[in-house]
Amino acid sequence: MLWLKFFWLRCQQFYYRRYLKQSRYGHLLQDCWDESFSPFKTNAFIHCHNVEFLVADLEMSSLNENEGEILSIGWVIIKHGRIQLASAEHHLLKAKKTVGQSAIIHNLRDCELQKGENMMFVVERFLQLAAGKVLVFHHAPLDMAYLDNASKALFFSPMLLPVIDTLAIEKKKILRQQAPIKVGELRLAECRSRYNLPAYPAHNALMDALAAAELLLAQLDHKGKKVRLADLF
Questions:
Q1: Is the pLDDT of residue 52 over 60?
Q2: Backbone phi, psi, residue 150, to 5°
Q3: 98: Cβ–Cβ under 8 A, 6 or more apart, which residues?
Q4: Comparing C-alpha atoms, which of 188, 201, 205 is closest to residue 88?
Q5: Is 89 within 8 Å of 74 (Cβ atoms)?
Q6: Residue of higher predicted confidence among 102 and 172
Q7: Which domain range does residue 153 map to?
Q8: What angle do CA 123, 105, 58 make, to 5 degrees?
Q9: pTM score of the predicted model
Q10: Is residue 127 pLDDT above 90, yes or no?
Q11: Among candidates 50, 36, 43, 49, which has minimal Cα distance to 3?
């Protein structure tokens, strides 16, 4: 049940508070936690139109979070059921290692990433915006694995924030139709095409975040006018 998921998150946050005190910047994550459940203060069945979402995407040097690193991150906010284009941000992070063959996919070169921003600065900005919002990713486990690693390195704790996955929403929809899931059918572009959304260039963090935001709104519209936040988990 949804309330159990939130209760478990809160328990984990309580456990990791002791570790935040060991970090010089632990208060940044603590402040975000204090606001992270504000959409649920009344109840977990609040109408999605009244929830703010922070839709994000990461580009990484590897699909293995224990081997790769975050190269770029992009995000945009959804408020009152509308994408707030003025909130869109795209950050390149300073890479510690060469990007290697992964440059073929994300088109980020070593010379660009050498001029990238510090991880602490980008994570601080991300947490400031995430406070009081629900995070959204397409294939959230991979993105959150990288963000958790970054959070552990900076704050000695995973992020432990409420997250919605547009891929998981689409997967449930297909399974309810008792249809087999084909290879590649859950990719962002394929999911968007089922809602007649236009094709965007892939593997740019900001473009993918915008694409995921549009997909979420299309999924909400498909579900009907009275979609509760609980319906997305």
A1: yes
A2: -65, -40
A3: 110
A4: 205
A5: yes
A6: 172
A7: 2-232
A8: 20
A9: 0.90
A10: yes
A11: 43
**What is the radius of gyration, based on Cα positions, of the chain?**
18
Strand partners, 134: 53
C-alpha dihedral sign at 13, 14, 16, 19:
positive
> Cβ neighbours of residue 179 under 8 Å, at least 6 residues apart?
none
Task: Collapse the DSSP code of 149 into the 3-class scheme (helix H, G, I; strand E, B; otherwise coil) and give the result.
Answer: helix
Q: How many domains does the chain have?
A: 1
For the segment 41-54, the average pLDDT, to the nearest whole number, is 79
Q: Check residue 116 and give its pLDDT.
A: 74
pLDDT digits (tens, 9 = 90+) for 166-184: 999 999 998 888 777 888 8
Phi, psi of 178 (to 5 degrees): 55, 40
Residue type, 38: S
Q: Rounded distance, CA 161 to CA 13, Å?
A: 9
The reported pLDDT for the residue numbered 26 is: 94
Q: Read off the CATH number of the domain in which 104 is found.
A: 3.30.420.10
Beta strands in the chain (DSSP E): 53-60, 70-79, 82-92, 134-137, 163-165
Residue 153 backbone phi and psi in degrees, to 5: -65, -35
How far apart are the C-alpha atoms of 37 and 5, rounded to whole Å?
12
The DSSP symbol for 195 reads: T
- Specify the pLDDT at position 42: 43
